[in-house]
Structure formats: C-alpha cells, structure tokens
Amino acid sequence: MRNKKRKFTVFITFLGSSVIILQHWFLQNKLSVTATSRHAMAGKLAFNNEPQKHISNKDDLKLVLFYTPLFGKSPWPGLASDYNFTHWNHIPCGVQACRVSYNRRDLARSDAVIFHGRDLPSVMHMKQILKQKPPQQRWVYFMHESPKFTYYDPWLYNGYFNWTMSYRRDSDFVVPYRTYTRLEPDEAVRIQAENRDFAKGKDRLLIWMVSHCKGLREDYVRKLMKYIKVDVFGSCSRRFNQTETCPRSSAACDNKLKRYKFIFALENSYCVDYITEKYWYTPLDHDNVPIVLGGANYDDKIAIPGSFINILDFSSVESLANYLLYLDRNDTAYNEYFWWRRHFKPVLPESWTCQMCAALNNDALPSKVYNNIGEFWGERSNCGKNERRIQEFLGGLIEET
Fold first, then answer.
1. Dihedral sign computed on CA atoms, order 208, 209, 214, 217
2. Together in a domain, 40 and 110
3. Are 310 and 199 part of one and the same domain?
4. How far is Cα of residue 363 from the mean position of the Cα atoms in its chain?
5. Using CA atoms, how far apart are residues 147 and 229, in angstroms rounded to an integer?
6. Where in the sequence is the domain holding 113, given as residue range(s)?
7. Both 222 and 296 in a single domain?
8. Are the C-beta atoms of 111 and 137 separated by less than 8 Å?
9. Which of 72, 112, 212, 234 is buried deepest, with most CB atoms within 10 A?
C-alpha cells in the first residue's frame, strides 16, 4: 500500500499571513539560490541577468514606480530604496540600472509602474492615468493572494497591464511563497552523515492549524476524527471542543509543533499553482509531514518530491487514517518522507526585482498587453474547475463514510 501512495520523483495561504510572508520575502532571506529553483520557477519573460556595465548617470537608470501600497503599506516592506531593489541578500543584481519611486508625480516618466492587486485603484482612476502612459511604459499587475480573495472582477481591468507577477508559473515574474534547490556537496555530506531519525521525539500524530471554519475541509477532518486523533489549533478549535492553544511565532508553539508527525496543509482555495505557507513554511520548518489538499498539481516544479501526502491519492477517509497509523508504527516508512532532506532544501526564489530590472533594460523584449487579465486572474478560470473536482471528490468521500 505504501508504494501505491508514495510518488517519489528521484533526482528531479489570508491577509495577515500574506503580509508576513511577503515581508519575509522582500527583506531577503540569506539562503542561496541555484539553478534548480530558477529552472522550476522561471517566468515567461526571457532576459539576461548576467553582470552588466554599471550606469552612474541617474537619468539613464530605469525608473520603477510603486503606484499602490502593499496591503496599505508604503513604501513596500524591504523595498524603500534603490539599493533594496538592485541587491539580493546584499549581492548586486546582474543588472543594476534601476531606481525606485513612490511618488505618483513620476508616473509619466516611469519605465515600469507596479500595482498591487489588493490595493488597485478604481477603474475610473485607471482610465484617467492611462492617458499619461508613454507607449513603452510597462504596467505590472502583482497579486499573491488567490483569485478567490481578489474581491473584484479582474475583467474590469482588461487592457491595462503589460506584465504579471504572481505565484503562477506562467506569470512574467514568478513569485512563489517558496521553492527549493539542491544541497551543496558539503551540506549533503553533512546531512547524510547525521542520518537523523525524524520520528524520534514525536509523540503526537496530527495537527490542523485553522482560522477559517466550516466547509468541506472541516467536514473531512471531522470524518477523519472517527478513526484517528486530530488536534485542532486556531480560532476554529472550539468548534471541535478543543481548547489547547499554540500562539503563532512563539517558542512554546514551535516546540509543540515539533512533537507532531503530520500536519494538515489544506488550502483555503483550489486555484492553479496556489501553494502557500501551509505547505512551504510551518511543516518544513518544524519537520512535520504535510497532508496537502489544493488546486496545484504538486509536481516537482512546484513542490518538493517525496515531502508530502496528498488527500486526493486516497480512495476514502478511512484509507488515509489507516495509512497514517501505519506510518506512525513504522519509523522506517515514516522517515522516507524526509528522504528529500538528503538532497534538497527550501529556499526563497531568485529576486523578482533583479529579474524586472534586467527585463526593463532589455530593449529586445516585445511589447504586449493583457487584454484578458480577467481570464488570467479570474476566479472561475483559475479555481472553478479544480474547486468543483475537489468538492465532488471530498463530498463523495464524506458521504461514503
């Protein structure tokens, strides 16, 4: 049964959470990024980010205007200066010929204008400023929440944007919550020599940290509770008559999380490529095996191979429960879910600011306009098909049990 459930590929998230993740991203993590993560998360634009000749004349630098705040914050966290935009972890971008502005008076002379999707101006306002747009200026649509939580109809903004920036792999600039890369040779030797037992010290089975209640996710967890113990933390815990707490970002909670073998990573919307901190941060930072459910396909280009259990691989709620109990009894089988740590590590992706600066300085890039931003970011086109499929699947499982 284990072989049937495991899919090894050898050698191959709401407002508060988003602000935290984006700040962490913008403030530049100190982990290195290599070709593995760059290849997995390469955007649609082709540009040369190799070191270029330094430009000292300020007027020759490409001007990037942050037209909107980021969740009401301006300057954007970690991007207040030209230095922040042209350096990644204090390492210069290959192309540094860019500077930034937060002054809307610079609109007409900017080379790129960035709009955060959740702080987007009204359509009337966009129509007015469109009159000032020079032909070669690029307007960039940036969104890190799923289309389900966009809160407006994206089709209203058809024809305004030239570039997209999101977690979607077909964006012009791909900004996932996290990605992964191969270990350096010395890291691999050290970790393999440790030969760590990831089952050791874990005396609890499964945890779910959740703040948005009701729906099929909750129904599924309730059915699973008929077979195994599930500890629920967060604002929804009282709905399960549970009162134990685990305050986020506290040392006590970190220590508690490390006692669990498994953690639910159930996304709140089932949209294309949408994998959030529910998979990328809490489980991987606390050595829990994530049990995932989402609209992404979880292939090796978007998730770490062999690192998770997918609910959609199981024919019934009971079969998942039995599999978790089997892993709980079998430390060897459980440790297989950490095989990837001998070869890979989670990292933040390459800086989109470096990519954008290189793209702006590439005169060979053709101009384009997203006349179908409603199709690209609409809830129905992004999430509808997956949502119906998962609802039917989960609904069938819940009815059967």
1. negative
2. yes
3. yes
4. 30
5. 33
6. 34-178+350-379
7. yes
8. yes
9. 112
Question: What are the tens digits of pLDDT across the range 125-154?
Answer: 999 999 999 999 999 999 999 999 999 999
Q: How many CB atoms lie within 10 A of CB 343?
A: 20
Domain final residue, candidates 304, 331, 347: 347
**What's the mean per-residue pLDDT of the chain?**
88
Over its C-alpha atoms, the chain yields an Rg (Å, rounded) of 22
Tell whether the model's pLDDT for residue 14 goes beyond 70. Answer: no
Residues in the chain: 401
- Is there a domain that residue 24 lies in? no
The pLDDT, as a whole number, for residue 394 is 86
- H helices, E strands: number in the chain: 16, 15
* pLDDT range class, residue 46, cuts 50, 70, 90: low
Round to whole Å and give the CA distance between 58 and 181: 36
pLDDT tens, residue by residue, 152-182: 999 999 999 999 999 999 999 999 999 999 9
- Backbone φ and ψ of 99, nearest 5°: -140, 165
Give pTM, 2 decimals. Answer: 0.85
Tokens 């495991």 found at? 6
Overall domain count for the chain = 2
**What is the rounded distance in angstroms from the CA atom of residue 291 to the CA atom of residue 264?**
5
Whether the CB-CB separation of 95 and 358 falls below 8 Å is answered with: yes
- Contact (CB, 8 A) for 10 and 339: no
User: What region does 219 belong to: left with phi over 0, alpha with psi -120 to 50, or beta?
Assistant: alpha
Look at residue 231 and tell me if it is in a domain: yes
Residues 115, 62: one domain? yes
